[in-house]
Automatic annotation (TrEMBL):
Any one Pfam family match given in the protein's UniProt record, by short name: Peptidase_C69
Name of the featured protein: Dipeptidase
Keyword Transport included in the entry's annotation: no
Keywords: Dipeptidase, Hydrolase, Protease
Family classification: Belongs to the peptidase C69 family.
Gene3D superfamilies recorded: Penicillin V Acylase, Chain A
GO terms, biological process: proteolysis
E.C. number: 3.4.-.-
């Protein structure tokens, strides 16, 4: 089976009691192995009476699709030759999913339950699950049944949430997985390695698992611990690559949300779950996803000897950074909000879109192969390239631009929630769809103006300049 280009991400989950506004959040940077990997963003319509078979372009997985599917937001690859890779979205039942966080099992467990090349992989997962589920818990169960029937082609971490619960699933081997309910007062950061720790098989309210996993581990003598069932110890890895590519991202995410706690960035024992020192806002989550070891010796934008030591959270090859938010239904009736940052998250704003809508905006669905400023993807890629080309001179104007738009976005969401309070049904959906277009228009205009300002300033920064000495 060919190696796909989607295999490097960072995920964050924040429980509603850990969040400043009482929302549940799931979020992820979708990273690839190439910098230029265009993504679309639009709404997949609901379907009825469908008779269709899904065939994966990536590995030919073949699945008969249900006749009925819910409407959902989708972020597929613009070029789908390698697969659909719909990645993330919220469906009309206010159930969200982000898939996947690539994770890797050790050779011992894989020897007894190898991956299934033609099984369920990242390219298919959102497509085969999100349109058919009514709750986060059902999402875990639905995915588990697919893995039981078809097997798993890869190691993957998958996030599900609704207004009540957040679940994180780690698919480790061909047929074995576990899932944990993220406590309401906690958050979790995951970075390309198995992170879930102790599993309590007497607590099905907070843990789920594949059929026969305890017998599989016992029969093959796979547990290295004298007692307990630590999924990370049994199924995970602990390598030099983990310590330079993976664990430092978890360390920095936890450093931002628990700054008083001192930890080793290369530690193999960073906890999966943490309670934050203060309540977490959507802006805090944005800051983590946009981070690159800021204000440390490991910042790749710096000049220190350790600036290239660790892989950062925000990268040039981050194709799609998303924060999915489900506010309390008692506070608002708008449903889900999907915050989307294209280009490099360090330089791009997070644009809020309402998911109870029939459309996002044509600038997000239009993604040609080459640069076109009518495309949101290419506009933000252009912005990132300009800012980084003169980082010292442009970083502050870019941060000012991001802060101004963040303030506008928060006020806009509030105003829409107030205006939507008296609406319901199709009227509410039409209203939120209109707001999506207005939001996109505002961000597009502000971004093009920012790009124009930077280019104008940049003309004075060329090295091909010369000033005559007046004394000559």
């Amino acid at each position: 089976m060919k190696q796909h280009k989607h295999a490097a991400c960072t995920s964050i989950m924040v429980g509603k009691k850990a969040a400043q506004d009482g929302s549940n959040f799931i979020a992820r940077n979708e990273d690839n192995f190439v910098a230029n990997w265009p993504k679309r963003f639009f709404v997949q319509p609901a379907v009825k009476n469908r008779h269709e078979t899904y065939v994966s372009p990536y590995n030919k997985l073949t699945v008969e699709l249900p006749e009925k599917a819910y409407r959902y937001t989708s972020s597929p690859d613009a070029n789908q030759d390698e697969g659909w890779y719909e990645e993330d979205g919220i469906n009309e039942k206010n159930v969200g999913m982000s898939a996947t966080e690539s994770v890797f099992a050790n050779e011992l467990v894989l020897a007894y339950d190898p991956l299934i090349p033609e099984g369920v992989a990242e390219d298919s997962m959102t497509t085969l699950v999100l349109p058919y589920i009514d709750s986060a818990r059902q999402g875990v169960e639905y995915l588990g049944k697919l893995i039981e029937k078809y097997g798993s082609a890869e190691g993957n971490g998958v996030q599900f949430f609704d207004q009540d619960e957040i679940w994180y699933v780690e698919l480790a081997t061909g047929h074995h997985w576990v899932a944990i309910r993220i406590p309401d007062d906690s958050y979790a950061v995951a970075a390309n390695q198995i992170g879930i720790e102790e599993i309590d098989f007497n607590d099905p309210d907070n843990f789920m698992w594949s059929k026969g996993i305890q017998e599989f581990v016992a029969d093959n003598n796979l547990n290295p611990d004298f007692e307990g069932f630590n999924f990370r110890h049994i199924f995970g890895t602990d390598t030099k690559q983990d310590r330079h590519y993976n664990t430092p991202r978890v360390w920095y995410g936890q450093k931002m949300l628990n700054p008083s706690i001192e930890q080793d960035p290369e530690s193999s024992d960073l906890p999966f779950l943490r309670k934050p020192e203060k309540k977490i806002s959507v802006e805090d989550i944005q800051a983590v996803l946009a981070s690159h070891y800021n204000e440390t010796e490991f910042d790749p934008m710096g000049e220190g000897k350790n600036s290239k030591k660790y892989r950062a959270i925000s990268l040039s090859r981050t194709a799609n950074s998303h924060i999915l938010q489900l506010p309390k239904s008692s506070k608002t009736n708008v449903g889900g909000i999907e915050w989307k940052a294209l280009g490099i998250p360090s330089f791009s704003p997070y644009v809020p879109f309402f998911t109870n809508a029939s459309d996002i905006d044509e600038t997000y669905s239009y993604v040609p192969e080459k640069l076109d400023m009518k495309s949101a993807y290419w506009m933000y890629e252009t912005l990132a390239m300009i800012v980084e080309s003169h980082y010292t001179e442009f970083v502050e104007p870019n941060l000012d631009y991001q802060k101004k738009l963040a303030q506008w976005a928060r006020r806009k969401v509030f105003d829409v929630e107030v205006a939507a309070a008296s609406k319901s049904g199709e009227e509410l959906t039409r209203f939120l769809t209109e707001q999506n277009h207005l939001i996109a228009e505002h961000f597009n205009e502000a971004t093009k103006e920012h790009i124009a300002d930077l280019i104008t300033k940049g003309t004075e920064l060329s090295k091909l300049t010369f000033k005559m000495d007046p004394n000559l």
